[in-house]
Amino acid sequence: MSTYQFPGHFLWGGAIAANQTEGAYLEDGKGLTLVDLLPTGKKRWDVMLGKLDQFTPLEGEFYPSHEAIDFYHRYKEDIALFAEMGFKALRVSIAWARIFPNGDDLVPNEAGLQFYDDLFNELRKHGIEPVVTIAHFDVPVNLIEKYGSWRDRKLVGFFETYAKTILKRYKDKVKYWMTFNEINMLLHLPFVGAGLVFEDGEDQKQTKYQAAHHQLVASSLAVKACHEINPDAKIGCMLAAGMTYSYTCNPNDVMDAMEKDRESFFFIDVQSRGAYPGYAKRFFKENNIAIKMEAEDEALLKTHTVDYIGFSYYASRATSTDPEVLKNQTAGNVFGSIENPYLEKSEWGWTIDPKGFRITANQLYDRYQKPLFVVENGLGAIDEVNAEGEVSDDYRIEYLRKHIDAMGEAIEDGVEIIGYTSWGPIDIVSASTGEMKKRYGYIYVDKDNEGNGSLKRLKKKSFHWYKQAIESNGQNLD
C-alpha cells in the first residue's frame, strides 16, 4: 500500500486527439486539416519540418489520418469500454476543420458541431468528464495555403471566432478546456505545431517566434472568452514537458540544460505569468528577432492567464556541451537528448524515467504555483496478440505503475494535480511516425501500418490493471 493519497475528486482517464483517432477526414462537411497532408514513410518527417510540395494529398502516398481508428463512427463502442475501466475523464480535441472547414468561413458547419454535441452527450451519459483541447496539432489547410498559417495575424481572429463558437456551444457540457496542445512543439515540428511551410532562405527563427506570438495572443483571447462565457469553467495551457538534466556538474552543461528547459518554459511563462520573460527578450535581441505586436497585446497577455497547467510527460532529457558526449544521441518525443547511462529506453529510444516525472511535476508547480493536469503519459510499444487472442502487455503496466507511483509522490510533495489522462487509452495513429505498431492503449485495435485490419477492439491485460488502479483511486497498482 502507498503512503500517498490521491484527491477524492481526482480525474482518472485517458487522452486522445481528433487527428489521430476520428478518421472520416472529409465526411459531413469537414475540410482538410494539416494532419491530412502527413503521409507515412520518409516524406512524413520533411512535411512535419515545414517542407511541403502541395496542399492536397499526393497520389500513391498513404495518409493514416484519413481513416485513423474510425472513432468518428465507433465512439459509442469505445466510450463504453472507457466507462468499463471507470474513467472519470476523457481528454479529446475538436477538429477545427469540422467546425470551420476552411478556417475563415463566416458560418460554422452544423454537422461538425452536432458530432461533438453527440460525443459529449455520450461521455456524460457514462459519467465521464470531457477535457477538451481547442487546437491539437490542427490548422485547416485553407488557412495554411491562403495566409501562411500562424505567421499571419489574421489567424488570431479566425481562431478567436472558432474558440468562441465552441465555448458557447458546449458551455453546459465541458468544464475543462485547453488552448493549444504542446504549444512548444512549434519550435521543433513547425508544420505540425503551427502549419508553417517555409520558403527557401526564409528566417525560420523569426517566423516561428512571430507565429508563437500569434498563438499566445490567441490563447489569451480564448481564456478571456471562456471566463466570460462560463465563469465556472477552467481553461489551461499545455506543455510537452520533461526535465533536462545536465550531463555533468560542469557549469557550462548546467547552463545549457537551463536554457533548453527555458526554450519550452517560455510559452508557459507567457500563458501563466502573463508577460515575456527577460531571458526571451535577450534571446530575441541576440538572434535579431523582432516580434510585431499590436498595442493591446501585452495587456491582453497580462490580464487573461490560464487557470491550470496541462502537460505531457514521456521521458526526461539530458544535455552536454562536450562534442564527444553529444555523439551519443537518443530519441525522446521529438526532443533531442544524449543517452542517459542511468536509464532504460523504450523500443523507440525514449528514456524511461519515473523519477523524472516527479521532478518535472515539482519543477512546474514550483515555477507557476497553479494546479497541474497530467494530460499525457504512456509507453509506446509493439504489442502482439497471442494464440489465445490476448495481449499481455506487462511492460506497459510496469511503466504506468512506476509513473503513477511517482505522481503520487509528487502529490505528497505538495504538488496540486487535477487528474491523470494517460495517452492513447486505445491504440491510435502515432503523431510522430504515423505508425499503428507504436501502441499505447489498454485496448488493442486491429490495424497495421499500411492501413490493413478489421479495426476490431480487444482488451489488453493493462485494461484490467488500469480499471483496478482507478477503482482504488491509485492505491492498488499491483
TrEMBL record:
One BP term from GO: carbohydrate catabolic process
EC number(s) recorded for this UniProt protein: 3.2.1.86
Protein's name according to its UniProt entry: 6-phospho-beta-glucosidase
Swiss-Prot/TrEMBL keywords: Glycosidase, Hydrolase
Active-site residues, Swiss-Prot/TrEMBL: E376 (nucleophile)
Similarity comment: family membership: Belongs to the glycosyl hydrolase 1 family.
GO molecular function: 6-phospho-beta-glucosidase activity
Gene3D superfamilies: Glycosidases
InterPro entries per UniProt: GH, GH_1_N_CS, Glyco_hydro_1, Glyco_hydro_1_AS
Organism: Halalkalibacter alkaliphilus
GO cellular component terms listed in the entry, alphabetical order: cytosol
NCBIfam families the record matches: PRK09593.1 (NF007158), PRK09852.1 (NF007356)
Broad EC category: hydrolase
Pfam families assigned to the protein according to its UniProt record, in alphabetical order: Glyco_hydro_1
